[in-house]
Amino acid sequence: MFGFLKKALGKTNKSISDVVSEKSKEISRDSFEELLLEADVSYDLVELLVKKLSSSVNRVQAYNSLISLFGYDINLKNINSKPFVEMIIGVNGAGKTTTIAKLARMYQKNGKSVMLGAGDTFRAAAIEQLTLWADKLSIPIVSTQQGHDPSAVVYDVIASAISKNIDNVIIDTAGRLHTQTNLAGELQKMVRIANKAMDGAPHRKILILDGTQGNSSINQAKAFHEMIGIDGIIITKLDGTAKGGSIFSIAHELKLPIFYVGIGEKPDDLIEFKANDFVNAILDEVFLK
């Protein structure tokens, strides 16, 4: 997985290598500051990090500085009955539908049965896209017509999954801009209905963030977190951006776990996020081992 991550960070590491042309055992604090900024780590966070460092920085110091940003707790809910219900949140274009397919594929490979809920009833295209993925992966899906109440989909998919002893339910949600207040009410209702259908559901509310948006996605994430309380994040399109360093800012600002990162368009292109691997993949471009 480390090799896949390094490949996905190609554009980010290219921007770093433009700052530090040759690997060495130490670099100046100014160079460390510049490479972090080039990778799209937020200015305020960079200033916070570098002020704690001496005039020269070695790999251990850089590693300790960056790994400290991932000091969040992953609170996984233990459930005694099926299904495990996940609600997928995010704006249009962030990659929700593709990520749902990737999650479903990952669960399939782990021997789990999966059912999808097409809860984005605002867009007909969203229902169609998710249905296409369900057909491709041979996964059952519960859907309704465009404009219908998405909470009905939530209840029906959970009830159906319970009756069929399905392991995992993944529910799509509308991705209208987070500035539209009616979306907050819709999402909150979907959460309430999920809990009525199954006590404790949804067990995870996952926010999808577009990796190409860099730090601009942080305010978006805060808005969704205020709406319904996000449990963790999946960052998409990491392979298509030079802004991979924004992951440090996202982890620091939101204090939420990053569950996975998307590294391509195929159903298998989703890998577990490991902070240790991520930091080392960045530092390998800078320091001699």
Automatic annotation (TrEMBL):
Transmembrane segments: none annotated. One of its GO terms (biological process) is SRP-dependent cotranslational protein targeting to membrane. One of its GO terms (cellular component) is cytoplasm. It comes from the Bacteria. It is found in: Cell membrane; Cytoplasm. Its EC number is 3.6.5.4. Gene3D superfamilies: P-loop containing nucleotide triphosphate hydrolases, Signal recognition particle SRP54, nucleotide-binding domain. Involved in targeting and insertion of nascent membrane proteins into the cytoplasmic membrane. Acts as a receptor for the complex formed by the signal recognition particle (SRP) and the ribosome-nascent chain (RNC). It is a peripheral membrane protein. It catalyses: GTP + H2O = GDP + phosphate + H(+). GTP binds at residues 90-97, 172-176, 236-239. GO terms for molecular function: GTP binding; GTPase activity; signal recognition particle binding. This is Signal recognition particle receptor FtsY. HAMAP family: FtsY. It is an enzyme of class 3 (hydrolase). It comes from Sulfurovum sp. enrichment culture clone C5. Keywords: Cell membrane, Cytoplasm, GTP-binding, Hydrolase, Membrane, Nucleotide-binding, Receptor. Belongs to the GTP-binding SRP family. FtsY subfamily. The lineage of its organism: Bacteria, Pseudomonadati, Campylobacterota, Epsilonproteobacteria, Campylobacterales. Part of the signal recognition particle protein translocation system, which is composed of SRP and FtsY. Pfam families: SRP54. The keyword Nucleus does not apply. Residues 257-270 form the SRP54-type proteins GTP-binding domain.
